[in-house]
Design goal:
By secondary structure, the protein is an alpha/beta fold. The chain has two domains: about 170 residues, Aspartate Aminotransferase, domain 1; about 240 residues, Aspartate Aminotransferase, domain 2, CATH 3.40.640.10. The chain is built from 14 helices and 14 strands. It has an eight-stranded mixed sheet with strand order 2-9-8-7-6-3-4-5, with helices on both faces. The chain has a four-stranded antiparallel sheet with strand order 10-11-14-13. A two-stranded parallel sheet has the order 1-12. Strand 4 and strand 5 form a beta hairpin. Helix 2 crosses helix 10. The chain is globular, with a radius of gyration of 22 Å. The mean pLDDT is about 95.
């Protein structure tokens, strides 16, 4: 090309959660039976959407309006419903105009970072969820800025680290938190959240809270929304139905804009997000129409409670199976549906292996593990030896070796086999050096 057409951030668009699938597909072609534990799709792992939710969708399909464009910001009655939900919690009050719909949270993430001034940075936690970290890095053309989550303190934020990085880097315009967190499954207590708000207030920043898992909390933790504690700080909360109904294929998410009127520059920035949606006309109509009827139904709260109890039982099951291995640290999750397993520093090496019965798969693993990070090496050997596909922790913009696994498998026997096989594989791998 006579001109360089590549965006400066193009090489930052990495998504380890999906990229490991390409290796899994090749393994499957070689005859390895794959157990997909890489992505948070409840439907693919056997969960059935409640019949009453399906019935609501069937009825909406028969409405002509569900096949049409909707308003750019979203279906008016749905935005009215969601605004009333926010206002009923106390805290910051909003109007329907503060709700903007996107084609899933991934679309919202792309717009929220993409329409920031390039020099304005967003600092997020490490381990980082790849959609956020890649979008922020691609927007800026530099590596994603991060503050530490402490694995020895149940993956709580290192607030001193965050405070100092914000203080001494004036390019930082916003702080990102995912609550409950992906990939760690941590739910942040109110005292931590209030301190993050204070840091944002002290340095005139805005907050971005990804709350896609906000109603999947357990083990004694409580759902807390950004609107309840943000006070007078500007912020954006991201919500969706993919994990709650669950309906990941709906690609239906929205942002709740908080305290828009407190800062003119923030208000102008939000206007640019809506203008970007106008270029696309609108987001999908049909899923939006379900929200008042599903979330407003008396059966919805018990539905959420039952699912939270299910994931609590599985989290306890996973923790019991995977903890207690020398050289391995596993914190019990309290939200979302993931477990992060961390290897202690120095326990992994480039000499460790697992026995792989399939000779073609063995040859492939030996080839692709040349020069890779130590946890990628473990993940590839695990895939070849057992067929279990997990995501390496260093793929989450993280310096710790480890991996993430889901709590989504609905087949009890299959799930127990997966956890037990993982535990045995870790023992064998660590003993192989």
């Amino acid at each position: 090309m006579r001109r360089n057409i590549v965006h400066p951030g193009a090489k930052s668009l990495s998504y380890a959660i999906r990229e490991i699938v390409q290796v899994g597909y090749k393994m499957r072609q070689l005859g390895v039976d794959i157990t997909w534990e890489n992505i948070g799709d409840p439907i693919q792992k056997g969960e059935k959407v409640a019949p009453w939710i399906r019935q609501i969708l069937h009825e909406i399909v028969d409405q002509e309006v569900s096949w049409a464009y909707c308003d750019t910001a979203g279906v008016p009655q749905t935005r009215e419903f969601l605004a009333s939900q926010v206002n009923s919690r106390g805290g910051v009050q909003i109007t329907p105009d503060d709700i903007i719909f996107f084609n899933g949270i991934g679309d919202a993430v792309a717009k929220v970072y993409g329409f920031l001034r390039r020099e304005a940075r967003v600092i997020g936690a490490t381990p980082a969820y790849s959609t956020h970290s890649s979008a922020e890095a691609a927007h800026s053309g530099y590596e994603h800025l991060t503050y530490d989550l402490d694995p020895r303190n149940n993956w709580m934020p290192d607030l001193d680290d965050l405070r100092l990085k914000v203080k001494y880097n004036d390019s930082i315009a916003a702080i990102l938190m995912i609550n409950p967190d992906n990939p760690t499954g941590t739910v942040y207590p109110m005292e931590v959240l209030q301190e993050v708000v204070k840091i944002a207030r002290d340095h005139n920043l805005f907050l971005i809270f990804d709350e896609i898992y906000t109603h999947i909390v357990y083990n004694g933790c409580k759902t807390t929304h950004l609107s309840e504690f943000i006070g007078d700080v500007c912020g954006i909360a991201m919500r969706g139905i993919s994990k709650e109904y669950p309906w990941p294929g709906s690609r239906c998410g929205w942002i709740e804009v908080l305290n828009r009127g407190k800062d003119q520059m923030f208000d102008t920035y939000v206007d640019s997000l809506l203008a970007s949606k106008r270029l696309e006309v609108c987001s999908t109509t049909m899923p939006q129409l379900t929200i008042p009827r599903v979330m407003g139904d008396s059966r919805y709260a018990p539905h959420l409670k039952q699912r939270a109890a299910t994931f609590q039982a599985r989290a306890n099951e996973a923790h019991a199976a995977l903890s207690g291995i020398p050289g391995v640290l596993v914190n019990k999750p309290s939200g979302a549906f993931y477990v992060t397993v961390m290897f202690e520093p120095g326990v992994l090496s480039n000499r460790q292996t697992l026995p792989i019965a399939n000779p073609k798969a063995k040859a492939m693993v030996e080839q692709i593990t040349q020069g890779v990070a130590n946890d990628f090496r473990f993940v590839y050997y695990l895939l070849g030896a057992t067929g279990i596909c997990v995501v390496p922790l260093t793929g989450f913009c993280c310096r710790h070796d480890g991996f993430r696994i889901t709590l989504l498998e609905c087949d009890d026997a299959r799930r127990r086999w997966t956890f037990d096989t993982l535990a045995q594989a870790m023992r064998e791998y660590l003993a192989s050096a």
